[in-house]
Amino acid sequence: MTKRDVDIHKRLQSIGREFVDTVHYIILFLISVVVIWTAGKEFIYIVQKGSAALKDILMLFIYLELLAMIGIYFKTHRLPVQFLIFIAITALSRHLVVDVQAVSDYFHLWLLATISIAILALSASIVVLTWTAKKFGRPEDNLNRQHADLTIKALLPRDAQQPDNDTKHYRE
């Protein structure tokens, strides 16, 4: 490959990354608008009803967690799986508290046990994810390091020495 081919390849990769980032931001912005709109409709329904039931409050917490997850992505450029699991736990808890009361007695026991086991499994997965992230790091940590190294290399003059690999770089 010639130097010109390498430069074109790098430019195309840069354009592709920018395109993907732009699409991510647009879609996350649209999701934010939809979540805020739906939460607003829920809130208006609660106000019109004159009181908030437990299911309504838990639904508002789900909307809040969705917005928090989107906000974290905008700030850190990471979409933590833990937040999706928290949302799932909240949704299952809401289902456990609200919907299980309406089913028959025989089915009620099995549904209660299944939902409880699912909540326990999701909680255990959060513990495992947190422990492994602390012990081994996250895959995107390597991407951040590679991105920082490439950025520094691009900014340095050609004859300058690159910093050693022990230097830590963090995206701000």
Could you please describe the fold and organization of this structure?
With 172 residues, the chain is mostly helical. The protein has a domain at 1-79. The protein has five helices and no strands. The protein has helices spanning 3-49, 54-76, 81-98, 105-136, 139-155. The longest helix has 47 residues, at 3-49.
Write the layout of secondary structure elements.
Layout: H1 3-49, H2 54-76, H3 81-98, H4 105-136, H5 139-155
Helix pairs in contact: 1-2, 2-3, 3-4
Search tags:
172 residues; mainly alpha
Describe the structure concisely.
By secondary structure, this protein is an all-alpha fold.
How large is the radius of gyration? 23 Å
Spans of at least 5 consecutive residues with low confidence:
none
Question: End-to-end span in angstroms?
Answer: 35 Å
Structural class by helix and strand composition: mainly alpha
- Please estimate the helix content: over 70%
Number of strands: 0
User: What count of helical segments does DSSP give?
Assistant: 5
Gross geometry: elongated
SSE string, helix = H, strand = E? HHHHH
Overall average residue pLDDT: 80
Largest sheet: none
Strand proportion: under 5%
